[in-house]
Amino acid sequence: MTPTPLTGAVMAPLYGDMQATALLSEEAVAAHMVAFEIALARATEAAGLTETGSADAIAAALDGFDADLTGLGQGTASAGVPVPALVAQLRGACGEAGQALHWGATSQDVVDTATAMALRDVLDLYAGRVSVLIDALQQQSEAFGDVVMGGRTRSQVATPITFGMRIATWAAPLIALEAELPALKSRIARVQFGGAAGNNLAVAPHGADIAATLASELGLGAAIQWHGDRSAVMAVGAWVGRLTAALAKMAGDLILMGRSEAAEGKAGKGGGSSTMPQKSNPVASEAIVTLNAYATALNPMLAMAASPAEERDGGRWAMEWFALPQILIAGAAALRHGADLAATLQAFPDNMARMLDANGGAIMSEAASFALAVHMPRAEAQTLVKDALKLVNGQGKTLTEALSEIGPDGIDWVQILDPRQAIAPSQAQAKAIFANRTNSLEETK
């Protein structure tokens, strides 16, 4: 057990993500807060509120500035946020020009804008990984497009599909999530500048102009203040939750496919057992399932944080800091594992064929029923198939043999009951799924 499963030395290699952790680190967020203060100095000077030349002096003094994180921690213990301590450090580094720092801003403006900058960077990381993952799944879907396997519904063998189609269904929610990313990024990558109570009273009537300059300086979108509107933060958490759910679907299916008694496919390196050398545990898939559960469990914290009291609220606001970075790191780690699984997918067609042949080929019962319905009422067709299955189970016949014996003449049961009949419609389904991605990407250009 560890209090830091996503970042600690023991658990992070499995459950964490170095790149996402770096983008969300205290050092990275502190650097964003410093960037905010420099940009604010330029914005207030441009508005004529601070002395000409002060912004350049501040920028020069803070070039390469590294905040004292221990000092920020002490300040947080006192003020509840690190910003007052940071501003004190910055003023100490800037000398007389430092009097122009933090003009008209409140601590939440600084923290929220720094958070928006970090989220922008993390979503860029996600975008690259999701794209690579979908590309890999499409390649694998095409490679396994004619590999027939038993489709399963409610854990039972149902009708034949192709492995390529199953892979495509894994990609379907990822394609939808990828299409949503540009709008999600625009929604969260917004400057926060409302001042003490959200109306920019200290810098009125220049609040909107300062916010616009801030946004331009920091590469963010301009926005009215969102101290009390946390819906964009919730949207990011929900998006990551849906992402991990999609990945957990893939991982869960791979776990089932890799069970010893099925052995229809596998992915990833697998983990061994010290006492059971025959085992190859699906470690990466299991990690994705865990990370999905974790991200899902944390999302309600963002929902609770989204109802702050009055104009600003310290208690509920802080809940975002407990939940959001963890959700984002969990999602990045799940994506990392998902990419590895997609790249290493293997199918074992002989074992898949064994399942198709099980019980005399009963997996083709639906096809038999609909073929018979052309020649007789559907209810009679279903009854005839059930009678044929009795011969399959009682006398060891194949479904083809049983229907040839008791069914009407003139039906080519060998062709109708060939599981390969599933290839064409399965390929069409897979093609349609990936066509949605092509259409979505064209729409966002």
From TrEMBL:
UniProt cross-references to Gene3D superfamilies, sorted A to Z: Fumarase/aspartase (C-terminal domain), Fumarase/aspartase (Central domain)
Record keywords: Isomerase
InterPro entries documented for this protein: AdenyloSucc_lyase_C (IPR019468), Fumarate_lyase_CS (IPR020557), Fumarate_lyase_fam (IPR000362), Fumarate_lyase_N (IPR022761), L-Aspartase-like (IPR008948)
GO molecular function, one term: isomerase activity
Pfam families: Lyase_1 (PF00206)
PROSITE patterns: FUMARATE_LYASES
Domain Adenylosuccinate lyase C-terminal, chain residue ranges per copy: 360-434
Entry similarity comment: Belongs to the class-II fumarase/aspartase family.
PANTHER family: ADENYLOSUCCINATE LYASE (PTHR43172), ADENYLOSUCCINATE LYASE C-TERMINAL DOMAIN-CONTAINING PROTEIN (PTHR43172:SF2)
Protein name as annotated: 3-carboxy-cis,cis-muconate cycloisomerase
